[in-house]
Amino acid sequence: METTKRIGRPLRDPEILNVDSYDPDNLLNVLIEKLNLKNDAGLSRALEVAPPVISKIRNRRLPVGATMILRIHDKAGMQVNEIRQLMGVAA
């Protein structure tokens, strides 16, 4: 299976779904706790995305892309490296 490092180019968004260590649940759960929210619906409102986006990320049908990482950075004040570590992708 894939590893988190590739020689010569960074991981593209869809490729993240194939990384063994990729775990968006951890990131989403930490965000819910950090922002004092109750559930994924509250998280979708806080990040200003539609609820199905959070569901698709949690169910690994949609990767946490650059736009979502920037939203998380803006809303939760987390560093990009920290966000990537929480979802199991090396920075």
What's the quick description here?
By secondary structure, the chain is mostly helical. The chain has six helices and no strands. The chain has helices at residues 13-16, 24-34, 40-47, 51-58, 66-76, 80-86.
Structure characterization notes:
This protein is mostly helical and 91 residues long. The chain has a domain at 24-86: 434 Repressor (Amino-terminal Domain) (Orthogonal Bundle), CATH 1.10.260. It is built from 6 helices and no strands. The protein has helices at residues 13-16, 24-34, 40-47, 51-58, 66-76, 80-86. α3 (40-47) crosses α4 (51-58). The radius of gyration is 13 Å and the shape is globular.
Observed structural traits:
91 residues; 54% helix; 434 Repressor (Amino-terminal Domain); mainly alpha; 6 helices; globular
Overall CATH class of the domain at 24-86: Mainly Alpha
Helicity range of the residues? 40-55%
Q: List the secondary-structure elements in sequence, H or E.
A: HHHHHH
Number of β-strand runs: 0
Overall form: globular
Low-confidence stretches: 1-11
Biggest beta sheet summary: none
Quick check: average pLDDT? 84
Write the layout of secondary structure elements.
Blueprint: H1 13-16, H2 24-34, H3 40-47, H4 51-58, H5 66-76, H6 80-86
